[in-house]
Design goal:
This protein is α+β, with helices and mostly antiparallel strands. It is built from eleven helices and 18 strands. It is about 35% helix and about 25% strand. The strands form five sheets. Strands 1-2-6-3-7-18-8-17 form an eight-stranded mixed sheet, sandwiched between helices. It has a four-stranded antiparallel sheet with strand order 12-14-10-15, with helices on one face. Helix 2 packs across helix 11, helix 7 runs antiparallel to helix 8 and helix 9 packs across helix 11.
Length: about 425
């Protein structure tokens, strides 16, 4: 460990309780995307108290805190803030019981089921340690709290609202995410790391009629069923076996009764790919198959194919990742790994892309760290806690939070250390 890192991290023991309390408070009070008002205010107040110049309300609820310490590089670290519409079932004493009114007027539960509370607490801990050890580093540290990662529109909202004018231009952007690996684990990966994701809503049109007289109708349920089956052939018959692709049909809605042939069916599809060529091929194949099946069924009008959510691929810069991986290996030793390709998706890359700067994004473990011979990652269980987005997702407090804070400090000091 460098002298700078040793000096900054010497304060970790003294702030541990505060970071754990912050995490519990955030976990107990989650907010949905673009509604993170309490979370943003809390983060902004904490950053101001640590000597940061703070800009609030970027893209709705986004926050930037700038800690300046003389001439030197500028490092931006991003954390996401939003929770998910899930009812928590962890049984934790600090479990969320929050509900909000949804767009349809019904009560909707909210939970931090993806670890964004860990990300925020770790970032605040990093800023606190840096602010208390100004003699150990030089430059500018930018803490960025991003809204609405889960919906894939938070980074775009901040960029559209003038982020590149409201925050200093960084030399590098860093970010991390808790994953269902053992706590203490830190994993980097150069190049492709997380997939692009495209969610489609497909409406196929039929002609309604009586279930006893199907010859008078064009049945969109049969049409949808044939489409679902045929979509499976994209991965199995159109994509090379070594090219990672996922095509999932997650939802089909049609009809109101067993003896009524409806006039339309709605299919929702999710696609995960890692490069533009494959992404284009798969999306074109979906359009081709849907259109052909509708024509084969005699549909009275063409299908409507709408893209409802889109995430870019997360492709880490090679040199930036090498630099971070080296300092992680030095600091974390055997807990530093090369992480597997992930099929999850992120919008974080739109922030460094807007500035035109390199980035790297890594994963940290959140589960019980006890070894289980012969299982999962390096002979340990790869899923000692339920995976992200589960109502049972419950990161262990330690060493998850210590690892999250330390990883951000060590990675940032790869640029800022004296």
């Amino acid at each position: 460990m460098t002298d700078s890192a040793r000096t900054v991290l010497a304060g970790l023991d003294s702030i541990r309780d505060d970071i754990e309390d912050l995490y519990k408070d955030l976990h107990q009070n989650p907010e949905l995307g673009l509604e993170e008002h309490r979370t943003a205010r809390k983060a902004a107040d904490l950053l101001r108290g640590l000597g940061c110049r703070v800009v609030e309300g970027i893209g709705g609820t986004g926050v930037v805190g700038v800690l300046t310490n003389g001439d030197g590089p500028t490092v931006m670290v991003r954390a996401d803030m939003d929770g998910l519409p899930i009812r928590e079932q962890t049984g934790l004493p600090y479990a969320s019981t929050v509900t909000v009114k949804g767009r349809d007027g019904t009560e909707q539960p909210v939970m931090h089921a993806c670890g964004h509370d860990v990300h925020i607490a770790s970032l605040i801990g990093c800023v606190r340690l840096l602010s208390e050890s100004m003699g150990a580093w030089k430059g500018t540290f930018v803490a960025l709290l991003q809204p609405s990662e889960e919906r894939g529109d938070g980074a775009d909202a901040m960029v559209a609202d003038g982020l590149t004018d409201k925050a200093p231009r960084p030399d590098v952007v860093l970010a991390q995410h808790v994953l269902p690996y053992p706590a203490g684990y830190v994993g980097t990966r150069a190049g492709s790391f997380m997939s692009a994701a495209d969610s489609l809503r497909i409406t196929v049109h039929g002609r309604g009629g009586h279930g006893a007289m199907p010859q008078t109708a064009v049945d969109p349920v049969v049409m949808a069923a044939m489409i679902v089956v045929r979509l499976q052939t994209i991965v199995s018959r159109e994509i090379a076996a070594l090219t990672p692709v996922v095509v999932t049909v997650g939802s089909i809605h049609a009809g109101t009764g067993p003896n009524i042939i409806p006039d339309h069916a709605v299919i929702q599809v999710n696609v995960r790919t890692y490069d533009d060529h494959t992404r284009t091929h798969v999306l074109q194949a979906i359009e081709r198959i849907v259109t052909a099946e509708c024509q084969a069924s005699g549909a009275p009008k063409p299908p409507l194919i709408e893209k409802i959510v889109s995430f870019p691929p997360t492709v880490n810069d090679d040199e930036t990742t090498r630099r971070v991986a080296e300092v992680f290996a030095e600091h974390f030793g055997s807990e530093a790994h090369t992480i597997d390709l992930q099929t999850a998706s992120e919008d974080m890359s739109r922030i460094p892309d807007a500035f035109g700067v390199p980035f790297t994004y890594w994963g940290i473990g959140a589960g019980a760290p006890e070894p289980h011979e012969g299982e999962g990652v390096d002979g340990r269980s790869a899923a000692p806690v339920p995976a992200n987005h589960s109502p049972h997702f419950a990161p262990v407090l330690q060493p998850t939070l210590d690892t999250g804070v330390s990883a951000l400090v060590v990675a940032s000091l790869a640029w800022l250390a004296i």
